[in-house]
């Protein structure tokens, strides 16, 4: 069959053959469910009934007009703040562990180890850390004389619970970001550091003027992962607090899951998922615009 075809047609046929199965799987398991999700967002479907009453934009109006639904986005702010701190700490350790420090491979392993741990296991472990009476954090604070802080209910106080949960994410994912930053640092040519040293640049000038600009694409990638991760948090509050106290730690994704599986309102949950998707796209687009504008002004 191939003998009668030209080389160009054979090439196109082979490429098409290799792409057929991946594209079919992508359409079947990604785009088709996404299209169904959009359709369900305009219905009042309960998840099991064959009837799917069309309600138009009512679900979207419900999301934006009900502060109990859209307002839970404020709980995700703590994860965003901790995510930024996490990236700063990761860059700090990456710079240190990229130097000729003795035992640096062991320190890299110790800092990366939390990332490979199961998320539910990490949540249960920090449940014991944050326990009010016998938690290791309060016992430590009492042992150093901070008895006032040593009686804090870290997961039971509305103003602290989200930051306590977000700090768990910082501990778990900081090593992962650090490894990415180390790879970025190792890709920077050593010649520019030698030239900077000859020109008399100190360590801070070298880091600010040379290291950070060369790491910018990787920093943008990690900030993208930080923003999306902060908006899509689910496992930590679900395992540790179930959204408590009084819904103070409930995240937007938790609310979507609860709407779908606890209240059987799949139409509203679908609309909430679509809004989350557009919200993530908008925030990431704004982030890219700000970062690219800052880079272009230099």
From TrEMBL:
GO cellular component, one term: plasma membrane
Keywords: Cell membrane, Membrane, Transmembrane, Transmembrane helix, Transport
One Gene Ontology term from the biological process aspect of the record: transmembrane transport
Membrane topology field: Multi-pass membrane protein
Species the sequence originates in: Paenibacillus faecis
Protein name as it appears in the record: Sugar ABC transporter permease
Statement: the UniProt record of this protein carries the keyword Ribosomal protein: no
Similarity remark: Belongs to the binding-protein-dependent transport system permease family.
């Amino acid at each position: 069959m191939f003998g009668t075809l030209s080389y160009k047609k054979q090439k196109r046929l082979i490429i098409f053959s290799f792409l057929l199965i991946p594209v079919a799987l992508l359409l079947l398991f990604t785009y088709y469910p996404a299209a169904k999700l959009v359709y369900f967002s305009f219905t009042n479907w309960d998840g099991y009934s064959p009837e799917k009453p069309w309600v138009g934009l009512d679900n979207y109006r419900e999301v934006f007009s009900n502060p109990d639904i859209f307002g839970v986005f404020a709980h995700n702010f703590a994860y965003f703040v901790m995510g930024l701190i996490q990236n700063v700490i990761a860059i700090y350790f990456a710079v240190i562990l990229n130097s000729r420090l003795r035992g640096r491979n062991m320190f890299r392993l110790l800092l990366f180890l939390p990332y490979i741990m199961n998320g539910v296991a990490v949540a249960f472990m920090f449940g014991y850390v944050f326990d009010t009476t016998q938690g290791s954090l309060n016992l430590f604070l009492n042992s150093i004389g901070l008895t006032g802080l040593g009686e804090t209910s870290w997961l039971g106080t509305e103003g602290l619970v989200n930051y306590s949960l977000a700090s768990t994410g910082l501990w778990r994912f900081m090593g992962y970001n650090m490894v990415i930053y180390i790879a970025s640092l190792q890709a920077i040519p050593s010649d520019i550091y030698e030239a900077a040293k000859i020109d008399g640049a100190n360590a801070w000038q070298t880091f600010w003027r040379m290291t950070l600009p060369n790491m910018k694409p990787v920093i943008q990638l990690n900030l993208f992962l930080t923003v999306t991760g902060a908006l899509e948090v689910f496992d930590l509050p679900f395992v540790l607090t179930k959204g408590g106290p009084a819904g103070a730690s409930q995240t937007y994704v938790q609310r979507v899951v609860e709407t779908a599986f606890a209240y059987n309102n799949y139409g509203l949950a679908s609309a909430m998922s679509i809004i989350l998707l557009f919200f993530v796209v908008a925030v990431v687009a704004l982030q890219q615009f700000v970062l690219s504008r800052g880079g272009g002004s230099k």
